[in-house]
Structures are given as C-alpha cells and as structure tokens.
Amino acid sequence: MDAVEEKYLEYKKSKMYIKHKIINVFLIILFLSIVGLMFYFYLQYNGDKKVVNENKNYFYEIKDNVVYLNSSDGLEGTYKCIKDCDIYSTETMPGYFLKGKIMIKDGEIIYLYDLLNNKKLSSNYNNIEYIYDNLGTELNNVKMFKVTDTFDKKGIIDINGSVLVGSIYDELGKKDSESLINYSYEKNYITAKTGEKWGLIALTNGKGLIDFQYDDIKVSPYNKLAVKEGNLWILVDEVNKKLINKGYSSIDVYEKYLVVSESDKAFIVDVLGNVTSNKIDLFYDVDPWNEIKENGLITEEENGIIYLNVNTLINNKNKLIKYYYDEENNEIKESL
Q1: Which of 5, 64, 77, 310 is deepest in the core (most CB within 10 A)?
Q2: What one-character-per-residue DSSP string does 121-153 give?
Q3: What integer is the mean pLDDT of 224-249?
C-alpha cells in the first residue's frame, strides 16, 4: 500500500471525513426538498384546474363545519373549516357563491375559497365588501372586494383573491347603510383616506389620481367631484382642476346643475357657478352622507328633474317638504 492510499484510509477514519459526509447528505436532502417544493407549487399554480361546467347546476351546503360543493352530477368537492363555518353575508350583501368560489366566514376570519379546486384564494380578513360594476348588484356584477385586515387597514382584491390595492388605507369609499359607495367601477377610481385627508386612487392598482389633500371627497357620475377644504365644498374635475371659484356649505352634483347650500339657504347654480334659481330656507344642518336623522337637505334626480327634500320644524313637529327645480322658469317650487 503506497503512501497516498494510507493517507486516504486515514482520512476516511477521521472526524473531518464524517463531517464532510454529513454535510453532503444534508445538501442532497436540502436540494431534493427544494425541488419537491418547486414541483408542488408548480402543480398548485400551473397544473390542470377544474373549471365551471356551464351545463351543471352548482350548489353548496354546510354541515358540521364542512362545506359541500354539489352539482347536478353529485358531490364535486368538500372543505372543512377550522372553526365555526358559514358563508359570509350581511343584511345588504348576499352570500358570495359564484362559479365554485365561496366567501367563507371561518370563526372570526373571512376569506375567499375555490371549492372546485380545493384551494384558498385570499388571505384572512376581518371584513369584506362587494365592489359592483355599473350594471347592477347581482352576484355576477361583483367585480372586486374591498377588504379590511387585522390592523383595520383597507385594500382591494379581485374575484380570484389577488391583491390589487394593498391594505394600507384608513378608509376606501364610504358606507351607505351597509353598502359601499363613493367609487366608480366604470371610471376605475375610489376615494381613499390616509391619516385625516382624502384623495382618489385607481381601483385596479392603487395608482394615485388625486393627492391626499382634502377633508372629504364626494364622487358623482358626471366627471366632477365635490371636494371639501375646511368647512367649504368646491367643485373640481377628475384631474383635480378647480371648476368654480366659490365654496359652499354643501354641494350635490348633477349633470348640468349643482344644488348648493349657504347661510341656511339652498339654491341651484350651473356648473360654471352662476346662480339659476331662487333660494329656499333650510332648518337643519346639511349632511352630505345622509347619516343624521334630521338632515337639512337631501336631493335626488328622477326623470331628468332635480328634487330637493327639506326637513322643516313646524309647530314643534318635523315635516318633510319636497321641492323640485323648474328648469324652464329657473325656479325651485314646492311639489303638490
């Protein structure tokens, strides 16, 4: 046996050799584990996915904390919740179950789940609200979800659970009863609040459209926004260009006119700021979001006519008087 072989045999008996063997085995196991995980995630995200068969009628049931997805062909899939299981809904929002996807309330958390592919689609949230298109409020009209995380921050996800707008905002949109308002799906924007100021961001990616500079913002369907600076509301367009110089205590925006209030009076101005009507008395403060019971002024448009609903106090009793704007005669008149 030559000297080289003797040294090799001596090395194989050494602690150094054993240490190298252990390291090599560990590296091989680590490599195989990484390959296995990569393959697993590949199958999860790139494997064959089940799709809805339009010829089948799908329905679900929840029993003993298990969600069963059934169809006209029989059982399609099951999912067991961790805690008390229910479909998430509110008084004004139906439970979301569409094309195999379901919004699950699992104990105190809410998430989107794909029953067809047995896959959780979203993170856990404390609250979820529907963002509809401009065509209706059926489940098919739900296009996105406003979500609230455990830190009470708001964001937006799509119907596949992907994050569109990170949960970084103190508020998104406004609440009308329990429904989400103050956004436009068609124009791809929603009001957003950070700290004490409001701005405007894109629904689909969170891109800033108007900086966070206002005390409030009210969206309209007419390419115009009422924005509040201090105690006064002004009118701007969707790129934040001021449209009228004067500020008012309140502004309701319509296509050709604004209903404004000032010094306990309500009246009509055109979109250039010109006064076009007489003034009527107000008896209560005007709330732009109609959250107080005795709201001084609530306006609406019906069949092209602007109506002004005014709460008044007569003989210590509250009475609602309905006015309308007679455009032809430039006069606000009481409805008979």
Answers
A1: 310
A2: -S--BSEEEEEE-SS-SSGGGEEEEEEE-TTS-
A3: 96
